[in-house]
Design goal:
The complex is a heterodimer of chains A (563) and B (440). Chain A has 563 residues and is an alpha/beta fold. Chain B has two domains: 8-332, 3-Layer(aba) Sandwich (Arginase, Chain A), CATH 3.40.800; 343-438, no CATH class. The chains are: A alpha/beta (563), B alpha/beta (440).
């Protein structure tokens, strides 16, 4: 059986599944000061209904690290960066302890200036004196050559409790993001590690010893052992959990939009051929962009509690929020009140909603029905406009070859998937506005916990080979090998696949089959000096994309009939 | 993170799957390390700097500018249409006010492509700056434009296209034509009879370094621009003046390029040549991006940059000063009176022989410009090449008077009937159409 827990902002949801479907589910309140208890309570609730017998997998999505960052409950981090030529590295300062160590690599990873290790030792000495015990070491172009980061790691003393090296986080080139990601990774490490210890202890107390995985923002999981090294990857996993949940509930194959209509916002996600669109560069933490891969989501500022006001005699829907709807005793009419009037949403005191619409209508001389209708239509219009803008961002993603440019297949949604309280009443309106078939999955209220439970591991690595220098490396996996001058793109693809499989199945003890690994980018370019080809620059990026654990693919399928 | 002072749009299209030939300098790998450097610096995360996808230019956008023989499409690959489209996108971003400045970091380049096109010259088939400028004139009514070409090779294509256009000031700074392809670009090449002084060439001696470039910038280019008052300044940002470029002999640096860009302050930059793809382009392009965005570029230095080693000699300095004075004087006092121009009937006539080094084609042309007292006059090019015989291009330019429009129509109709030409292209910028006639 597999168990999923999603610790969200208000509720903590849990669901237990076997191959035939949901065995038990639970919803408890999230205790912000004590997330561990929230997890425990959710588990209690599940196991009060069923015995904790055969839990093989336990996937956990938690706001722990996100909250720690937002509330600034961060460990002091000693940051050392090394830059080489380019932008002034002081632009990228983060935290209170940030030093630039002289030394540098060029864009090929060739050392152009050796590291000033004496200076680095002095900086570290100073950090130790100030009681700093966690560190981040980041070099410009370290994915091309991690040597400088490794040299810095070697001079760390026993006083170091944890250290993040930039090249281990991502193969993506982006020095400022690497710095910020490595900083936050170390800054949340103590809090995450303590939490991880407590969770495993709680599970053992119950006699459970499942594979414990942590959900990431890209909708994949990572084993706890790996998460302890890169806790920053656990941020913003909540939206990913819901999106994966919808993917688990519905057999999605087509381009689609997912609209999660909440109280304050409507969250939009995009699917291309049934797979959620992911961005390698998206997550920003306190205005610092990071390398945390995340699902592309946008929040539209229209939700059930969006206020309806009159501005110069015109109905204005949002962006204000003035508390809850009239139907629940609020002071100002909201979208929910309008929905109460256009159709039978039957939310709270519908007569209060009716009266609210009537009052607005009286002021501008139209009927309450018309007010409600206009409000709903306008809300749908706003949602559509912003969703289309997001689609355009997805479709305007730069490509760098003539082939990709001309063959580029735009994401063109065929359906809109809807979830959230007002989904059912809004469906016909949104359908008309988007001119797309709406689908409301049954059980969407447990989608987040289902998504957490059923998500499989994701991974992305890049192999770089330089046949002139005779070397090949996969920095994230720590692989570095000598190759012959005849090394080819085909060999590179084989190598990246076998190294990745080896890492996932041997080191992390997962069960990944070779066909789950796909190649997302590949190139082999001749390097020419003078008039002669001296070698090839070969690059292969491969990934395991987010998906549902194959054995459970059918377990949670619901009826996803078009409305 | 520091915010860009100017909102800058970078249209980046490295065409990683396109090359002239596998080991040609204009090959797939050319912008690979530039991409790596820009991505690693995180420039597209700087608030105010945005990466844009190019668009595809329409054949119409090319036909508006070039006489292409035997036709437009056969002189192009898709890559040319995307690189021209990248330049157009940059122009659109700027004209629509979506960006304060834009940089078309695209390939293949274009500044050796002339008015008439029979094939590839100097790695160029069509002139992406001219295609952009004429697109902007057509769609936004842009008038006076200045193009400052800082590629190491003389931009003979751009010079040729704008030779007779008094509304386009073309200034080229390049390595002396006596020492480098294409062998032209001397101070005496000042533009046609109706555009005297609107074409300026600043040939610099080999081993000119930052000092020399900045001298011509401050002493010639800036005062001339100040006087010309263009609506837009475009920089043809070739990067082969760099001290590490394999094809040239100059000593310009990334710091110099960035400094030049900061002073010149162009609205749009378009990449041209530059083939030191590891040692120069990553740094020069980064320097230009930062300079255009109004950001500090002090740390942008090539790993092997040694200002002392590449300092120009006093002989070079003296030469640069002499050239500067001469060219400045040519702009402010064009020596028109001393030039005798050949005329046939009411047409100025010029004979040209053009060699296409990339396509190995020789073209001989007779160029006729109607000497009209109301406008710049229609242009007729009678062109024969080793590839296409008996071709004719007729252009009724922007601002042409009614008489010239009639004359253009008459020449077109007459040539069609005469049967002398296998291929005729008629560009009418007043009515905004292009016609073709072919006898084959």
């Amino acid at each position: 059986m597999i168990l999923g827990v999603d610790v969200g902002g208000t509720h903590t949801d849990a669901v237990l599944l076997d191959h035939s479907g949901v065995v038990a589910s639970a919803k408890v309140e999230t205790l912000h000061e004590d997330l561990l208890s929230s997890v425990r309570n959710a588990l209690e609730a599940i196991f009060s209904k069923t015995s904790p017998a055969q839990v093989e997998h336990f996937n956990l999505s938690t706001t722990l690290c996100t909250n720690a960052i937002i509330q600034n409950e961060l460990e002091e981090v000693g940051v050392l960066v090394t830059a080489g030529p380019g932008m002034d590295p002081s632009y990228f300062k983060i935290g209170d302890n940030y030093q630039v160590v002289p030394g540098g690599l060029d864009h090929r990873g060739t050392e152009i200036k050796s590291l000033d290790l004496d200076f680095a030792r002095q900086c570290l000495e100073d950090y130790y004196k100030r009681g700093i015990r966690v560190f981040s070491l980041v070099g410009k172009f370290s994915p091309r050559n991690p040597e400088h980061e490794k040299q810095l790691a070697e001079i760390l003393q026993d006083k170091c409790e944890f250290c993040t090296q930039g090249h281990a986080l991502s193969s993506q080139l982006n020095f400022p993001r690497r710095i910020a990601t490595a900083y936050y990774n170390s800054a949340v490490w103590p809090i995450f590690n303590n939490f991880a210890n407590s969770v495993t202890d709680s599970l053992s107390e119950k006699g459970l010893n499942p594979n414990l995985n942590i959900l990431k923002a890209d909708g994949g999981t990572m084993p706890l052992s790996q998460a302890r090294g890169m806790p920053v990857e656990s941020i913003f996993s909540g939206p990913a959990a819901s999106i994966m949940g919808i993917k688990a509930l519905c057999d999605m194959q087509e381009d689609a939009l997912l609209l999660d209509i909440g109280g304050t916002t409507t969250d939009v996600a995009v699917f291309a051929d049934g797979d959620p669109v992911i961005e390698a560069e998206s997550v920003e933490l306190k205005q610092y962009p990071t390398l945390v891969r995340a699902m592309k989501t946008n929040s539209v500022g229209v939700g059930g509690d969006t206020a309806v006001t009159l501005e110069n005699g015109d109905l204005q829907i949002g962006p204000k929020r003035l508390g809850c709807c009239l139907a629940q005793g609020g002071a100002a009419p909201t979208l929910v009140d309008a929905l109460n009037c256009v159709q039978e949403l039957n939310h709270g005191d519908t007569r209060a909603s009716q009266k609210g619409m009537q009052d607005l209508g009286d002021q501008i001389g139209i009927s309450s029905e018309e007010v409600a209708e206009r409000v709903v239509l306008d809300a749908c219009k706003q949602i559509r406009e912003q969703a289309l803008q997001m689609l355009e961002e997805v479709n305007e993603k730069p490509v760098y070859t003539v082939h990709e440019f001309l063959e580029y297949k735009k994401v063109a949604p065929k359906k809109i998937y809807l979830m959230g309280g007002p989904a059912k009443v809004l469906a016909p309106y949104l359908s008309r506005e988007f001119d797309l078939l709406p689908v409301i999955p049954d059980n969407y209220s447990v989608a987040n916990a289902l998504g957490a439970a059923m998500a499989r591991s994701t991974y992305e690595v890049e192999l770089l080979a330089d046949t002139e220098k005779h070397n090949m490396s996969i920095a994230v996996l720590g692989v570095q090998e000598n190759i012959s001058g005849r090394y080819s793109l085909e060999q590179a693809k084989e190598d990246v696949r076998s190294h990745l499989l080896n890492y996932l199945n041997r080191t992390l003890q997962l069960c990944v089959s070779p066909d789950e690994i796909e190649f997302v980018e590949e190139s082999a370019m001749n390097m020419v000096k003078g008039m002669y080809t001296v070698g090839q620059d070969i690059r292969v990026k491969s990934q395991i994309k987010p998906g549902i654990i194959p054995e459970y693919a059918e377990a949670a399928r619901c009826v996803c009939k078009e409305q | 993170m520091q915010r860009a002072i100017n909102n800058l749009g970078v249209v980046f299209f490295p065409a990683f799957d396109w090359a002239i030939t596998p080991t040609h300098p204009e090959r797939q790998e050319r912008l690979l390390y530039t991409m790596d450097q820009l991505k690693e610096e995180g420039v597209f995360d700087v608030p105010g700097i945005t990466e844009h996808k190019p668009q595809v230019a329409d054949l119409e956008d090319i036909r508006r500018v070039h006489f292409c023989f035997p036709d437009t499409a056969s002189n192009l690959t898709n890559s040319h249409l995307i690189s021209a489209g990248g330049a157009i996108k940059s122009g659109d971003l700027y004209q629509k006010g979506l960006e304060d400045k834009s940089f078309a970091l695209v390939r293949p380049p274009g500044h050796h492509a002339m008015k008439s096109v029979h094939g590839g010259r100097g790695f160029c088939n069509v002139n992406i700056e001219a295609i952009m400028v004429e697109y902007l004139r057509e769609h936004y009514g842009v008038g006076k434009v200045a193009i400052v070409d800082t590629d190491c090779h003389h931009g003979d294509g751009t010079q040729n296209i704008y030779w007779h256009d008094p509304e386009t000031l073309y200034i080229s700074v390049h390595q002396d034509g006596r020492t480098l392809f294409p062998g032209s670009g001397f101070p005496g090449e000042l533009g046609g009879p109706k555009a005297q002084g609107k074409n300026l060439n600043l040939p610099l001696p080999p081993e000119t370094s930052d000092e020399g470039f900045l001298h011509v910038l401050n002493e010639v280019i800036m005062p001339v621009l100040e006087d010309f008052q263009p609506e837009m300044v475009i920089n043809s940002a070739g990067q082969d003046n760099h001290f590490s470029d394999p094809l040239t002999n100059m000593n310009f640096s990334a710091q110099g390029y960035a400094q030049l860009n900061k002073v010149l302050n162009p609205d749009i930059a378009v990449l041209e040549g530059g083939y030191s793809i590891q040692g120069a382009l990553p740094y020069v392009n980064l320097g230009i991006v930062l300079a255009m965005a109004g950001l500090d570029f002090d740390y942008v230095r090539e790993p092997d940059f040694d200002p002392e080693a590449i300092r120009q000699s006093s002989k070079v300095t003296d030469h640069v000063k002499r050239i500067s004075e001469m060219v400045r004087n040519h702009y402010f006092n064009p020596p028109d009176a001393q030039i005798r121009r050949d005329k046939k009937d009411n047409y100025f006539v010029r004979n040209q022989e053009i060699f296409y080094d990339t396509g190995f084609i020789t073209e001989r042309q007779k160029e006729y410009l109607l000497d009209c007292e109301h406008c710049r006059g229609i242009l007729v090019i009678d062109s024969n090449s080793s590839k296409n015989k008996s071709c004719l291009g007729i252009e009724v330019p922007r601002g042409a008077c009614e008489k010239c429009q009639e004359e253009g129509n008459r020449v077109f109709e007459e040539s069609k009937v005469s049967g002398r030409y296998s291929n005729i292209q008629f560009i009418n910028r007043i009515e905004g159409f292009v016609s073709r006639h072919s006898n084959t």
